[in-house]
From TrEMBL:
<dbReference type="InterPro" id="IPR036291">
    <property type="entry name" value="NAD(P)-bd_dom_sf"/>
</dbReference>
<dbReference type="InterPro" id="IPR002347">
    <property type="entry name" value="SDR_fam"/>
</dbReference>
<feature type="domain" description="Ketoreductase">
    <location>
        <begin position="3"/>
        <end position="176"/>
    </location>
</feature>
<dbReference type="GO" id="GO:0016616">
    <property type="term" value="F:oxidoreductase activity, acting on the CH-OH group of donors, NAD or NADP as acceptor"/>
</dbReference>
<comment type="similarity">
    <text>Belongs to the short-chain dehydrogenases/reductases (SDR) family.</text>
</comment>
<keyword id="KW-0560">Oxidoreductase</keyword>
<protein>
    <submittedName>
        <fullName>3-oxoacyl-[ACP] reductase (MabA)</fullName>
    </submittedName>
</protein>
<dbReference type="Pfam" id="PF13561">
    <property type="entry name" value="adh_short_C2"/>
</dbReference>
<dbReference type="InterPro" id="IPR057326">
    <property type="entry name" value="KR_dom"/>
</dbReference>
Length: 234
């Protein structure tokens, strides 16, 4: 029986590509998502990760179908961009509630299953802006930077139980969101990337597949940049 992977937000973008990568590799894949269609081969449960009861119920339903979650890829997140002086309390709080606290809810529930079986892989999808910062994204970069502390604390707390926790920090990735950027903006961003191009969602999926594998059993508390050299690991 293949391992059960749960990818949050697998209905679009990077999360969708990660889920497709795990399906192609032969894993049993499920997702918690709010809307949209999932890739073929992925079982879904509709839930908002800002709701603890909904998260727990979704995990229960998916584990009843596929067995305990052994690998969690916490990908779901939102943006509410705006300059610091104009950012509202709600814009700041909403992003942290989803990207940080919502991730915590999923990790907490997944860890219950992982502790029982003394095996687990927790992969948190962060961002290069959590390392470098970005104008207009004080809320988003704060939420992504916090994931590093989360992964490292989980590593120290649960590492002896066969559970790893790591962060992937994607840079500029070609998705529907970046497709809306103007040509001049794209060229400006590409000029700042040593690889001189945007990455593909499959690049992030490849990192997730590695961190979930047996080959990464001794990798924990790490931040893996997938950014074409933009952040240089800082």
């Amino acid at each position: 029986m293949s391992r059960h992977v749960l990818v949050t937000g697998a209905n679009r973008g990077i999360g969708r590509s990660i889920a497709e990568g795990f399906v192609a590799a032969g894993y049993t894949v499920s997702s918690i998502h709010r809307s949209g269609e999932l890739p073929e081969g992925v079982t879904g449960a509709i839930a908002d990760i800002t709701d603890t009861d909904a998260v727990n119920a979704a995990f229960d339903a998916l584990e009843e179908q596929h067995g305990r979650v052994e690998i969690l890829v916490a990908n779901a997140g939102i943006t509410r961009d705006g300059l610091l002086m104009r950012m509202t309390d709600e814009d700041f709080a909403d992003v942290l509630e989803t990207n940080l606290t919502g991730t915590f809810r999923c990790v907490r529930r997944a860890s219950q299953s992982m502790i029982r079986q003394r095996f687990g892989r927790i992969v948190l999808v962060g961002s290069v802006v959590g390392l470098l910062g970005n104008p207009g994204q004080v809320n988003y970069s704060s939420s992504k930077a916090a994931l590093m502390g989360m992964a490292r604390s989980i590593t120290r707390e649960l590492g002896a139980r066969g559970i790893t926790a790591n962060v992937i920090a994607p840079g500029f990735i070609a998705t529907d969101m970046t497709a809306e950027l103007g040509e001049d903006t794209v060229k400006q961003y590409e000029g700042s990337i040593p690889a001189k191009r945007f990455g593909a969602p499959e690049d992030v999926a490849a990192a997730a597949l590695y961190l979930a594998s047996d080959a990464a059993g001794y990798v924990s508390g790490a931040v893996i940049p997938v950014d074409g050299g933009l952040g240089m690991g800082h």
